[in-house]
Amino acid sequence: MQTPNGNVLWDCVSLIDDATVEAIRARGGIQAIAVSHPHTIGSLVEYSHAFDNAPIYWHADNREWAMRPDPAFAFWEGETCEIIDGLTLVRCGGHFKGSDVLHWSAGAEGRGALLTGDTMQVAQDRRFVSFMYSYPNMVPLNARTVEHIVEAVEPYAFDRIYGGWWDSVVRSDAKAAVKRSAERYIRAIRE
Fold first, then answer.
1. Does the residue 171 lie in any domain?
2. What's the pLDDT band for 44 if we cut at 50, 70, 90?
3. N or C: where does the chain have the smaller number of CB atoms within 10 Å of the terminal CB?
């Protein structure tokens, strides 16, 4: 993610090579790395080292999942962490206790955007999101946890959601999509 205040690598699970490092340097490098949940940690230590030990922001509730300790990890606590002006991590929990989303205040042409990873999975029709504790095992979250996720992002303005995959985008009315998705989800698990 490129911003006037610095670039952030978000939920990158790819390998790193010289061509990738050069391409990122040509775009201004990386000032920080942010991770939504433990499944996306992969090669981030190498990315950090390639870019002057850029800090890897990860919620302290996920500390036990750091199988490769490194000084680059910047474990944060609490409910929010502003990593660069206009980019704020919001702990939502759910998929993992420390799962978070990244709020980009200038995203969506200034209307705000959320980058959600697996915390809120963009549905196939792109009008809804869904919530899961375990995607591989198809284990749903309980109603209270889904309500907490919605409450965590409520204070933020956002019109767009970028999900965990390239084409998983709610292009507009995303805040309303989260609310109606939670209502639909809770109704379905309570019936």
1. yes
2. confident
3. C
Question: Closest by alpha carbon to 131, among 157, 93, 168?
Answer: 93
pLDDT in tens, 108-160: 999 999 999 889 999 999 999 999 998 888 899 999 999 999 999 999 999 99
Q: How far is CA 80 from the centre of its chain?
A: 12
Distance CA 139, CA 104 (A): 29
**Residue 3 counted as domain residue:** no
Sign of CA dihedral 35, 147, 172, 105: negative
Q: How is 101-166 classified by DSSP, letter by letter?
A: EEEETTHHHHT-EEEEETTSEEPTTSS-EE-EEETTTTEEPPHHHHHHHHHHHTTS--SEEEESST
Q: What angle do CA 73, 60, 68 make, to 5 degrees?
A: 40
Report the alpha-carbon distance of residue 37 to residue 119 in Å, rounded: 8
* 139 part of a folded domain: yes
